[in-house]
Amino acid sequence: MSKIVLEVEGLRTSFFTRKGIVKAVDGVSFFVREKETLGIVGESGCGKTVTGMSIMRLLPEPGGKIVGGRITLNGTSLLELSKREMRNIRGCMVSMILQDPMTSLNPVYTIGDQIAESVRMHQNLADEKMITNEVVSSLRLLQIPSPETLLKNYPFQLSGGMRQRVVGAIAMCCKPSLLIADEPTTALDATIQAQYIALFKDIQAKTDVAIIFITHDFGVIADMCHRVAVMYAGKIVESASTSEIFKKPQHPYTRALINSVPRLDRKDDRLYSIEGQPPSLMHLPPGCRFCERCSDSLEICSKEEPPEKNIGNNHTVSCWRVQ
Amino acid sequence: MADILLEGRNLTMLYPVRRGLFQGLIGMVRAVDNVSFSIERGKTLSLVGESGAGKTTTAKSVLLLERATSGSVYFEGKDIYQYNKDQLKREYRPRVQAVQQNPWSSMNPRMRVKDIVAEPLVVNAKQSKKENYDRVVELLDQVGLKAEHAEHFPHEFSGGQRQRIAVARALALNPSLVVLDEPVSALDVSIRAQIMNLLKDLQEAHNLSYLVIAHNLATVRYMSHGVAIMYLGQIVEYGDTEDLFENPLHPYTNALISASDLKLPEDRDQNEKEIILSGEMPSPLNPPTGCRFHTRCPEARPECSKIEPEMVTVGKHQVKCHKFV
After folding, report:
1. Between A161, A189, A263, which is nearest B215 by CB?
2. What does DSSP say about strands B312-314 and B317-319: parallel, antiparallel, or unpaired?
3. CB B188 to CB A216 under 8 A?
4. Residue B314 near residue B249 (C-beta atoms within 8 A)
5. Domains along the sequence of chain B with CATH
């Protein structure tokens, strides 16, 4: 077994607003190994992005706060670091790719300058030439054609797929041990998305980087991830290896989510749909958070929160139905 | 004989490209190039393709938001491009409605739901306020909302509910055709199924025809009876949904299917490798000669870059590829 790069234990992140406390992430634990991709899947508002932002310690201030838990990256406890120490780690040991490349790139700087910024910040390279070399090699890693000429281009001159590769190059230029990718393929077209996923598999094989892939798309999960954590209303309700999740989903929410995705390889007459909507994170129900929308809930479900059970093979579920 | 509601014949849309101080004409973008399709009454046709393929432009020419440069649209056998403004307003526009992709931007945030849904009625049907309100309540009920929702503002609703409001507005005038531009792609996975089921139910109840614009093939397979796969302004494969998905012919269709298939790597057969296209869609300002797909096609032959393939009929559907000529 390769070593564990990131371990998150009981992470709780809340937003303190005038109307009340929003528990966006409420006791989430997981780990990622070297060379492994963990998928975090769930609907919008389930806390998957906030989990990523908590690891980066990039929560909006004031308001967003990590109120409990531990995050350990390569043996360093991230929550105990000062802001300055965290700046040295961010972009170097752990980096992040966001959904829309047009908003994460600066429109008035060239591609080369934007990648060089990260190299200058984290690697003590005296010579401009060495910096350029680093930048070019990270563009090569992302398989960008003719990187030397692309350096002088501005983001608007590139296509969506190329831009997202540049964002990938910024993230990978300091050879991080953990990469958090937050819906990196959602803004891309289907065939470009397939290219991007194949590219990241290739990069992972070359650099051993651990990846956390945040998405709502099960197709991406099936292609890319080794293990999956399914989130609902701030909690991980089920986690297992990708093939277990697809073949033996245990939690009713996981099952419903998989069933409600239309399939290409068969004709459905009617899609399974989950009625209702996720609960408000400000007023969470006392029992299981999925209880209201669950088709086979028990009496206990609305009263007590189900504990997390390990049913073997590192497959964990939080549901009263699972014995 | 199939009952054809709407037919697009040889639609072509050109946009001039101007540049420089004097805005000199430097070329024409062929956004849609000689596209023909037909939609039967009570059935769904989907236009599928990546961004820049010309799906939305085709839909615009059907909605008459823009007139095609050449070609025409026939509605119930009549050429609507020959109609004058008055005829269009009376006979065509009320019967063809649209639902936009993003329910956050398709509604005026300062109007109440009752006014949003009633707007087509106010414009087109001359009736009393009371009659309008009754119709709004009836429509809200049809899309699964309650009468009291009529007094609320759009910001009070979730994405799925907003899309329901947009559907209610589109149905207000009892249209025959609804153009759905990516109706579910802005919604959450679990909500998508609700809206797709709703659209199917409404289609059955009102014998509606849909023209769906989509990029997700699985959604298309679930929703539609006919599919047109578009690439760089042209339809490259066109036919019955089941037939097309069971037996895809065009290399581009195959690549799209491979890209959106929900399959674990371990479940793929040895010879069933995932097809990953190289490169990106070329600029429509300067499309490749011959077959427009040949620059990315894994099966391209020498003639592909020289001669543009004709649309040929293979089995129950049509395809535009040299492999089948």
Report:
1. A189
2. antiparallel
3. yes
4. yes
5. 4-262+273-324 (3.40.50.300)
Question: Taking a C-beta distance cutoff of 8 angstroms, is the pair B143, B163 a contact?
Answer: no
Q: Do B50 and A223 touch (CB under 8 A)?
A: no
CA B157 from centroid of its chain's CA atoms: 25
Listed by number, the residues of chain A in 284-313 with a beta carbon closer than 8 Å to a beta carbon of chain B are none
Q: Which of A191, A218, A262 sits opposite B255 (nearest CB)?
A: A191
Beta-carbon separation of B264 and A267 below 8 A: no
- Residues A242 and A226: their CA atoms lie apart, in Å, by 6
Angle between helices A111-122 and A128-141 (to 10 degrees): 110
Spatial distance between the Cα atoms of B137 and A280, rounded to a whole number of angstroms: 27
The residues, any chain, with a CB within 8 Å of residue B178's CB and separated by 6 or more, are B96, B97, B98, B99, B170, B171, B208, B209, B210, B211
Instruction: Please tell me the distance from the alpha carbon of residue B188 to that of residue A217, in angstroms, as a whole number.
Output: 10
Contact by Cβ (8 Å): A70, A21: no
Are B276 and A198 a contacting pair at CB < 8 A?
A: yes
Transcribe B157-178 into DSSP letters.
S-HHHHHHHHHHHHHTT--SEE
- Taking only the tens place, the pLDDT of each residue in A192-213 is 888 899 999 999 999 999 999 9
Helix axes A160-172, A128-141, angle to 10 degrees: 120
Q: For tokens 């895809």, name the residue.
A: B248
CB atoms within 10 A of CB A152: 11
Confidence class for position B268, pLDDT limits 50, 70, 90:
low
Q: Is B20 exposed, middle or buried (0-12, 13-18, 19+ CB in 10 A)?
A: exposed
Could you tell me if B187 lies within 8 Å of chain A, comparing CB atoms?
Answer: no
pLDDT (mean) for B268-284: 76
Q: How far apart are CA A52 and CA A153, in angstroms?
A: 30
Question: How many angstroms away from the CA of A251 is the closest CA of chain B?
Answer: 15
Interface check for A269 against chain B (CB to CB < 8 A): the answer is: no
Q: Positive or negative, the Cα torsion across A54, A59, A61, A62?
A: negative
Strands (E), chain A: 4-17, 20-33, 37-41, 64-73, 76-77, 94-97, 178-182, 210-215, 227-232, 235-241, 309-310, 316-317
Give pLDDT tens digits for B17-42: 888 888 888 888 889 999 999 999 99
Q: Is the peptide bond before B298 cis (omega within 30 degrees of 0)?
A: no
Q: Which phi-psi region, left, alpha or beta, contains residue A78 (left: φ > 0; alpha: ψ -120 to 50)?
A: alpha
The answer to whether the Cβ–Cβ distance between A262 and B196 falls below 8 Å is: yes
ipTM of this complex: 0.79
Query: Roughly what angle, to the nearest 10 degrees, separates helices B189-206 and B159-171?
Result: 20
Q: Do residue B188 and residue A44 have CB atoms under 8 angstroms apart? A: yes
Give B-chain residues touching A261 at CB under 8 angstroms: 189, 193, 218, 262
| Cα–Cα distance for residue pair B291/B269, rounded to 1 Å | 30
Architecture of the structural domain at A1-93+211-264+271-323: 3-Layer(aba) Sandwich (3.40)
Tell me the pLDDT tens digit for each residue of A26-72: 999 999 999 999 999 988 888 999 999 999 999 988 889 999 999 99
d(CA A188, CA B316): 32
CA separation, residue A184 to residues A6, A194, A286, B264, B278 (Å): 20, 12, 35, 20, 19
The domain limits of chain A are 1-93+211-264+271-323
At A119, which amino acid appears? V
What angle do helix axes A128-141 and A190-207 make, rounded to 10 degrees?
120
